[in-house]
Amino acid sequence: xxxxxxxxxxxxxxxxxxxxxxxxxxxxxxxxxxxxxxxxxxxxxxxxxxxxxxxxxxxxxxxxxxxxxxxxxxxxxxxxxxxxxxxxxxxxxxxxxxxxxxxxxxxxxxxxxxxxxxxxxxxxxxxxxxxxxxxxxxxxxxxxxxxxxxxxxxxxxxxxxxxxxxxxxxxxxxxxxxxxxxxxxxxxxxxxxxxxxxxxxxxxxxxxxxxxxxxxxxxxxxxxxxxxxxxxxxxxxxxxxxxxxxxxxxxxxxxxxxxxxxxxxxxxxxxxxxxxxxxxxxxxxxxxxxxxxxxxxxxxxxxxxxxxxxxxxxxxxxxxxxxxxxxxxxxxxxxxxxxxxxxxxxxxxxxxxxxxxxxxxxxxxxxxxxxxxxxxxxxxxxxxxxxxxxxxxxxxxxxxxxxxxxxxxxxxxxxxxxxxxxxxxxxxxxxxxxxxxxxxxxxxxxxxxx
Length: 450
Ligand SMILES: Cc1cc2nc3c(=O)[nH]c(=O)nc-3n(C[C@H](O)[C@H](O)[C@H](O)COP(=O)(O)OP(=O)(O)OC[C@H]3O[C@@H](n4cnc5c(N)ncnc54)[C@H](O)[C@@H]3O)c2cc1C
What we know:
By secondary structure, the protein is α/β, with parallel strands linked by helices. The chain has 3 domains: 3-114 and 267-352, FAD/NAD(P)-binding domain; 116-264, FAD/NAD(P)-binding domain (3-Layer(bba) Sandwich), CATH 3.50.50; 354-408, no CATH class. Helix content is 31%, strand content 23%. It is built from 12 helices and 24 strands. The chain has helices at 12-24, 47-51, 64-67, 122-125, 132-151, 155-161, 171-187, 192-197, 216-228, 322-339, 375-389, 393-409; strands spanning 3-8, 30-36, 40-42, 61-63, 72-83, 88-93, 98-102, 105-108, 112-114, 126-128, 163-167, 200-204, 232-234, 239-242, 246-249, 254-256, 259-262, 266-268, 285-286, 299-301, 306-307, 354-358, 364-368, 371-374. The strands form 7 sheets. The chain has a 7-stranded mixed beta sheet, with helices on one face. Strands 10-17-11-12-13 form a 5-stranded parallel beta sheet. A hairpin with a 2-residue loop joins strand 23 and strand 24. The protein is globular, with a radius of gyration of 24 Å. The relative contact order is 0.15. Mean pLDDT is 90; it is low at 439-450. The structure holds flavin-adenine dinucleotide. Residues 9-14, 35-38, 44-45, 47, 78-79, 109-111, 129-130, 171-172, 175-176, 269, 271, 303-305, 320-323, 325 line the site of flavin-adenine dinucleotide.
């Protein structure tokens, strides 16, 4: 009899777990099913590049069907609940039906969503930056703000259009802001009034330092780099209120702005609370060092959704990074195989060896094996690392092409906000209704299209 191994979530952790299971489990010993609500893995470290127009959005995702082998079944659907006593999960399938999937071993890798706080006006006026739709919306929004600033006669109104506030200085906030600043600098020559006026970028962080996910010295290194580019960094500062054209900060300043981007942390995907599993700090699933959910038979959890003990910091959970999710995925797969009779269960022991913070063209900071890099060498290292880490030769070549075309020809300023959201077909009017005897002639469209 083949075992049922179900992986909930097809992001960094779930994808790495599936690939490793395909390799380590004896052939035909198990059926591996990945249940996920999108048929691709989003390679988030390249999301700022997609937002800044350096990369084609389709090139920063990994189509799961292409990369998973025949042994793995991909189920597109949304996990809605689980019953650990019955060993089942419930999935809202792509057909709209609710289906119950049994498992012998379950790996929960459902990731995280934006964590919001009760800041007045936040939901109405701020934007997130966590997935592809948000990244593309942000890019379109920045282009629109440049257009609006260029066409207004009022300098104070122009200042508001040209001020961008990012709240939260983790990977998403810092890299997102840096890439968009680079993008704006690149296209500014097309907007003469904006160029004369100048653009203001503000990064707000509640903690004392930026980038809590990485070592302190490297974070200060990144901060110095951003300050030298004219970005205002407000640490130990919080966002107090947002309106359509202002952001009030805890240091008392009311910034006139039309853009507030909220990247202040993440919390586990909401469905995690519906799985009947024990939750720890921050709502992450409680697991031991082997990533097994304590007291629940056959359930493991990894990535941003789980509080995996961090081997590098006693008493703390691993930071929510792709580096950790990938390594946890690989290790948990081996532990699941061990639970099914192949190999040994071992704890998660990974400690970060290198960090890359990409900050736009020729700008990055990096630390690899104790050596710190900045500027062009760091930028080259970061790109090389992502090129190697991106699954699939075809996709690597596409990235390489996008980057090189961008370097040679600059970036595009078309605002394609309506892409995929066309206007509805116009309802028929009295004049467009066909006369009874011409009805058959109008069934096919005629004449040249546009
Ligand atoms: C802009 C940005 C830049 C980043 N840059 C870096 C970086 O440079 N380096 C780094 O190490 N980390 C980076 N991170 C963090 C990194 O993306 C996360 O830590 C990583 O994605 C976590 O992996 P995961 O497998 O836990 O979750 P994810 O990769 O988010 O995967 C979770 C999957 O589960 C799916 N899912 C969610 N809910 C359901 C449901 N109910 N049913 C079915 N499927 C569901 C999701 O669609 C997703 O496919 C960045 C994050 C962002 C937002």
